[in-house]
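README, section 4: Worked example with a bound small molecule

Sections 1 through 3 covered apo chains. Here we extend the same pipeline to holo records, where the ligand is supplied as SMILES alongside the sequence. The molecule in this example is glutathione. Nothing else about the input changes; the structure line simply encodes the ligand pose together with the chain.
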Amino acid sequence: MYRLIIGNKNYSSWSLRPWLLMQHLGIPFREERLALDTPDFQRQVSTYSGAGRVPVLVNDDQVIWDSLAICETLAEQFPNAWPKDPVARSHARAIVAEMHAGFGALRSELPMNCRAVERVVVLEPSVEADIRRIETIWRECLERYQGPWLFGAFSIADAFYAPVVLRFRGYRLPLAARTRDYMATQFESPHLQAWIAAGAAEAEVIPHEEVGD
Ligand SMILES: N[C@@H](CCC(=O)N[C@@H](CS)C(=O)NCC(=O)O)C(=O)O
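The generated complex, written as structure tokens:
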């Protein structure tokens, strides 16, 4: 049985990615939550991974850290984690890589926070540029593959952009109707709803992750 080591559901955007993928694909796993930003976190996480970060997937004696490495590893056993068509699959890999390596302004200025809804923030141009780029990525996918998920059926791409959907919900942002349609698709998922409810119910508050009025 897989074990997925995750951080606080309220804040850990990287943990949400493999957790949501495993839920959507029906992969059985046990989850273990480590509280971020606490004195014990580094000690606890270092028993699994020298990288010192969550998520981590443990499968018998195999330990995989990093959300992308975890999703790629799962895709070897569950090929429907990626789109079936090779051209769509390359496209999905490209937008996942872009998410994994980029959007630093969005990440730092608009933290994922399950408790945040339409908080008021002043947007830096760099954040606006990240938002526009993500809207373009989503629009192109939804037009080309006809939705409701980015590549028709749920894939790793949707798992990677789910935390962005939560960031977009958390703050008052000017967003296109098409963007909101895709967000609605994500929010209709009982798995994402379960994560949000669990995150919102957590007691910890990490002050530097609390942004907006
Ligand atoms: N590239 C890594 C990043 C993981 C990451 O930054 N995780 C955060 C939590 S969301 C973390 O463990 N932070 C703890 C720390 O930096 O002390 C991944 O994709 O898994």
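What to look for in the output: The chain has nine helices and four strands. The chain has two domains: 2-79, 82-197.

Section 5 describes how to batch many such records.
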